[in-house]
Amino acid sequence: MNNLQATYIRGVENMEIQIINDIANKLGLGNVISSVNKLTGGFAHEVFSLETDKGKYAIKLLNPETMSHQYAMDILTTAEQLETKLQENRIPIVPSLEFSGTKMQRIDNRHFYVYDFIDGKALATQDIQK
Would residue 24 count as lying in a domain? Predict the structure, then answer.
């Protein structure tokens, strides 16, 4: 796959394929080198993995219906402020990436975040230790 055209994406609709390609192109994420996968675990939003020649990313597409409400923007703004405070205090997190000085991005009325992809699994509550 070259020229950032992911044509086969497991579990993804054609509209999402176009959105992922637009994100990769407009943000300069690199040339797509493997299929994009829809990840499990998202509650209100959808998350996809994208591997390019520049790295592997997680793209969180925010639910358009949810994002049509001002309260969603307010909550996400507060979350971004908290993320910044955690980073400033060197508390380990996986922060969203910034492009043109902002974390939340928007292309064609779709809001999204981009993260460096971290391969792992969610722990069950009983497996979490201090």
Answer: yes
**Would you say residue 31 lies in a domain?**
yes
Distance in angstroms (rounded) separating the CA atoms of residues 95 and 116? 8
Q: What is the pLDDT of residues 9-30, one digit of tens each?
A: 555 667 787 888 889 999 999 9
Tokens found for residue 82: 């908290």
Note down the domain range covering 13: 9-65+94-118
Which residues are bridge partners to 32 per DSSP?
52
| Pairing status of strand 36-39 against strand 9-10 | parallel
CATH number, domain at 111?
3.30.200
Vertex 34, ends 32 and 38: CA angle to 5°?
100
pLDDT band at 3 (very low <50, low <70, confident <90, very high): very low
Beta pairing class for 55-61 and 105-107: unpaired
Among residues 3, 94, 8, the alpha carbon closest in space to that of 53 is found at: 3
- Look at phi and psi of residue 90 and say left if phi exceeds 0, alpha if psi is from -120 to 50, else beta: left
Question: What is d(CA 72, CA 74) in angstroms, rounded to the nearest whole number?
Answer: 5
